[in-house]
Write a structure and sequence with these properties.
single chain, alpha/beta, six-stranded parallel beta sheet, three-stranded parallel beta sheet, 14 helices, about 40% helix, about 10% strand, globular, binds zinc ion
Amino acid sequence: MYRIGGSSLGQAIQPAIFDGHNDVLLKLYRAGGASAVQGFVEGNAGAIDVPAAQAGGFAGGLFAVFVPSPMDLDEKFTEMTKDAYDLPLPDPIDWEDAFPIVMSQAAILFELEEQGALTICRSAAELRACLDAGKLAAVFHIEGAEAIDPDLNTLDVLYQAGLRSIGPVWSRKTIFGHGVPFRYPSTPDTGAGLTDHGLRLVKRCNVLGIMVDLSHLNEAGFWDVARHSAKPLVATHSNVHAICPHTRNLTDKQLAAIAESDGMVGLNFAVAFLRADGKMLPEVPLEQMIRHLDHLIETLGEDRVGFGSDYDGAIVPEPLQSCAGLPKLRAAMRQHGYDDALMTKLCHGNWLRVLEKTWGQ
Ligand SMILES: [Zn+2]
């Protein structure tokens, strides 16, 4: 087991890693929903399950509820192995279609808790207690706000059910705004930003204490949130545009705004956002991840960088195929010269700090 303060554990699985983004709920939804939960408890060969988390010192993270677009993922990933690519934005998804899928995936999250696989954390205090107890911690997140109605009634209800983080868009238009297409090379400045509904969503999230996730917003949407949100700016799973000029990555100007707001960025393990050539190919040395971390630390400061693995939703570097491989990442970070204090901040300390500041409790 992993414990934040435990001393009996080896360096390999400490500090515990709390992570800004995974797609476990989508994986289990596709695998049959509640019937797949047992596989997660016993180990189901995905990137994250309970045994792998214990083996790798993966302490939990933001568990995304995500409505998938009807697209051929293999075709998409093949297109993204080319020197340059520009995938069209998937069609919008109506509220009526999105809502039942969001309910199904949220129900899987609750089932996971009922089966004892994890604890859903609704405050920073609950999160700290959960990590300290060595229990897998889950924050209920929604990636793409298709299931939220224009009056935001569903947002209020989902907050009461435990929702603590939301991205107004995935890379697909919603009534709240426009997402970035998967395009390389490209700036993130790909079109219009948030709509009036989107601005109201941001304000309501501020009032309730729901984090607004900047990952997948285009640059105009990013600046709309920056102007209208009173909370720290957070991109849960995005990388450095200066190293990999992909639409999904953040420019130095965006990083400066995140630093100024005292927000943070979670490093995305998805290979297309790590590699300088933007290709969706798994041969990525861990040093390439360190390069992104160094740049993030340089521009944001040590207190504003963490992880956002995208596990179970992306192709990730070979050595980190499962979260059981995370000791290799810790070893590479230490080898690079990150000291214990910095390791703790990057692995979970910064997420705890920013979530506490955002939620206000
Ligand atoms: Zn994503």
